[in-house]
Amino acid sequence: MKRTIEYILGMQPTYLYDALAAPMWDVFTSKPDFTPYTAYDIPEPLMEETNTAQSPAAATSRTQLWHVADAADEGLLARIEWDARTGKQDGACPTHVGPAGRQWDPCTIGDVHERTISRDGGEATLAQLREIYSVLQANPDLHGIGLAKRLEGIARRHSLPAGDDG
User: What is the pLDDT along the chain (166 residues), one digit of tens a residue?
Assistant: First the structure.
């Protein structure tokens, strides 16, 4: 879908995967279809799940920045998911899953340094977005070079940590 949006907006693909993706032309039509549809209710208990104070790793989970994209500890998320699916509450997770020769540890995604960079990058991105929103609210007619200079200043004030892929 991202490739289709980039193409419609006249943008170059952001990543190699976007460039290799086929635009989704088949989802568009020149004649709209107004036929009513019946919504399908997903018959899974997963739709009713909520986190409680007794949920796996609830106390640790509260320490995460859930409102910042990519700032939550992925290893922690994997352990929480494992505990939720297996009914365990001890944070124990197998060290190796998968077929022989292709095993991996589902609960050690990334290292502490990588997770710190991701969290700091998430906080910087959120700060950038908040300031951009404020600037655009205060200056609705700002565009072109003026806008570009303001955005450059915001990026400098809230720079991403080295190693963050944005």
Answer: 787 887 788 777 777 777 778 888 777 788 888 999 888 776 666 656 677 787 767 777 788 877 776 677 777 777 777 777 776 655 566 666 666 666 666 665 555 666 677 777 778 888 888 899 899 999 989 888 888 899 999 989 988 877 655 4
Q: Where on the phi/psi map is residue 101: left (φ > 0), alpha (ψ -120 to 50), or beta?
A: left
| Residue at token pair 């450059």 | 152
* Residue 1 to residues 25, 40, 63, 115, Cα–Cα distance (Å): 10, 23, 34, 28
The DSSP code for 42 is P
Instruction: Taking each helix axis as running N to C, give the angle between helix 74-86 and helix 112-138, from 0 to 180 degrees, rounded to the nearest 10.
Output: 110
Spell out the residues 6+ positions from residue 73 whose beta carbon is closer than 8 angstroms to its own.
64, 115, 119
The predicted model scores a pTM of 0.42
Domain range list for the chain: 111-166
